[in-house]
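We modelled the chain as a single entity of 534 amino acids. Its sequence is:
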Amino acid sequence: MRSLFVDSTQSAVRRALPYLILTACSVLYLYPFMRLLIHGPDEGGLIYGAERVAEGQVPFRDFFEVAGPGTFYWLAFFFKLFGTTWVATRISLLLTCLGTIVLMFHLSRRLHAGFDTVSAVVLFGTLLGPTWPTVSHHGDSTVFALLSFAVLLRSLENARPILFFAAGFLAGITTLFLQPKGFFLFVSYLLIVWLLFRGESKLRNSALGLAAGYVVVIASVVLLFCTAGALPDLIYANVVWPLTRYGYANAVPYGLGAIDLYWQQWTSTFVPLFSPVLGYGMSAILLVPFLFLMALPFLLVAFAVFWRSLAFTRATLPYWGAGVALWLSEIHRKDIWHLSYGSPLLLILFFYLCPQLRLRWRFSILQFVTVCAFALAGFNGLFAMSARTEIDTPRGVVYTFGNDPVLAFLNAHAGEEIFAYPSLPTNCFLAAAKNPTRFSLLVYRMHTNAQFREAVRSLDDKKVPYVLWNPRPDDQSVKWLDPLGWSRPPDNELIIEPYLREHYDVILEHDNVRILERKRTTAEQGSSAGLVSH
């Protein structure tokens, strides 16, 4: 008996050891990124929303954001545990990244794909930029989607209804973070069980278990918002508004960012430092994972067309179904970062299928992609470690690539009402500033004129003392939102800008960002003088 116990313990340790080593290495690699302050277009609004939820506000009723309610409550949970601090946001981000890496490794090993860590390296290597390392509903939804898929694979092995329920439940949780991702995933699960179990008695129980788990989550959220009197706001912000207003923001070229951001930055940096041959060669090596990611759907289509019997087996079918669902859920915006978030299962599928081909150069291709992916990851790590300017804020210490006088000014006015426009709310969070409006992001033609006017009324009613304004949207975070310039209306259609110019003075400008201070009216000056004389 004791020998059996020892053998089982040793076997469990052997199975767990690769995951423990991967986790330890991932933490060491990710730590420098967790210190970075990146002004992502999503993170500031999500953090602000989570702070408001932690204080008892209800999303969409008390504030308006372009995201599902999931990340607000998920991050608010960490604020409740660790306080409303920068560290709490990084703990949440680190766990999301670790969960994604470990789950991709696990799902690759289940398929016996080989190259088990490369898919995660490609994913995170191509994410560094405006969207990472930042808190994001794309990242949160991805880790819950992968967890749901791992549970589904387990349920397909033994057809236990409770596991199907859990898979559907986790797909419902994914929907709370990113509606298309969770819904498409759920639909793909129904298709998968139909294809694998059709004609069998367990098809009905499997489908019912998935549906029950999914419906429980959605019904619970509807009931929660209905009780709070916020159901119309939930429907408007998560269904009506995206379908009617978000199309402009999604009109971007396929793979946006790979060439116009990464390639141009690398060549402009490396070529002057080294010879043109070496500079362009280094840039080309770093670009390979991005080009591979852009080509991935077309490569898999080729597998499906020319090697159909190899591509579609009982083992690969779930990866096809769920992988396509994740990709479709992100393809509404075709930039390189959405392609990354949509590709984790397709990456695993490719690294499984490619070695099966009877082509002499198949392993050379895989090895080349692997070398380039690790080179990109290594370069990104060195880039993160080069951020050595330490800035102390009311929310905690952050690291940047140089002094930030804007953040220093905000820190000196901690706790005051400050409006960030069109979107720089992360700085305001770090300064513990209060948002005087319901909006952390306002973009013309995406947000309605009524929403712009509501923001102006809030500024006017509350006599907000300071505004953080990015009047020239040529920095990377705003270019990511508006690469084609579609959000810049004629001057006679502007709403906020005339009000800012009339009621505020520029007192500081740095790196395309201005700090505005409210002008004191004659009445306010007279009142102040009266108080002084009194």
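As a brief sanity check on the tokenised model: The radius of gyration is 25 Å. The longest strand covers residues 504-510.
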